[in-house]
Amino acid sequence: MNFKIPHLPFWVWTLGGALTILAFNIAITLRAEYGFHLEKIEENVKEWRSLPIQYAGASACIDCHQDIYTVWAKSNHIIVSCENCHGPARAHLENRARLTGNTSRELCELCHAKLVSRPSDFPQVDVKKHGGQSECITCHNQHISRP
Fold first, then answer.
1. pLDDT at residue 32 in the model
2. What is the residue extent of each domain of the chain?
3. Cβ neighbours of residue 81 under 8 Å, at least 6 residues apart?
4. What's the pLDDT band for 20 if we cut at 50, 70, 90?
5. Residue from 42, 40, 84 nearest 61 by CA
6. DSSP string covering the chain, please?
7. Are the C-beta atoms of residues 139 and 108 closer than 8 Å to each other?
8. Which of 12, 13, 60, 142 could potentially form a cystine with 56 if both were Cys, beta carbons 3.0 to 4.6 Å apart?
9. pLDDT band at residue 19 under the 50/70/90 scheme
């Protein structure tokens, strides 16, 4: 394979070199500023491991909420964890703290607002026209997730 260096004006090579050096310096600076301290990996791992676990996963809900879990497990929302809507379950599991579900339109819009980037067969709505200002659960059961 013959590779030829393209013949470009000197200013192009100079600019390219300057931009490369600048990008390298920015990368080094950002690494330090945003916590990418490769020399302190052990400390970083210890810090993250010391934080309490807040999320339990949907399997933690099945023991007490079998009826809702069974319906949810057969729905299209099976890919959405219970804690996405109900919040972290740790406190609920430890001391029965009440979990409240987020039934806001804004939460449903995160996945169901009509966007051209979404597959056409994915359930989407024009949120400005659909349902007025009512919460989505007024007409839709979030655990069944059928239109």
1. 60
2. 58-138
3. 55, 57, 58
4. very high
5. 84
6. ---------HHHHHHHHHHHHHHHHHHHHHHHHTT--GGGHHHHHHHHHHSPP----GGGTTTT-HHHHHHHHTSGGGGS-HHHHH---HHHHHH-PPP-----HHHHHHHHB--TTS-TTS--B-TTTSSTTS-GGGT--TTT---
7. no
8. 60
9. very high
Residue in this structure with the two tokens 């990996």, named with its chain if needed: 41
Q: pLDDT tens-digit profile of 73-122?
A: 888 888 888 998 898 888 888 888 888 888 888 998 888 889 889 888 88
Whole-structure pTM over 0.85, yes or no?
no
Listed residue (28, 141, 18, 125) closest to 75, CA to CA = 141
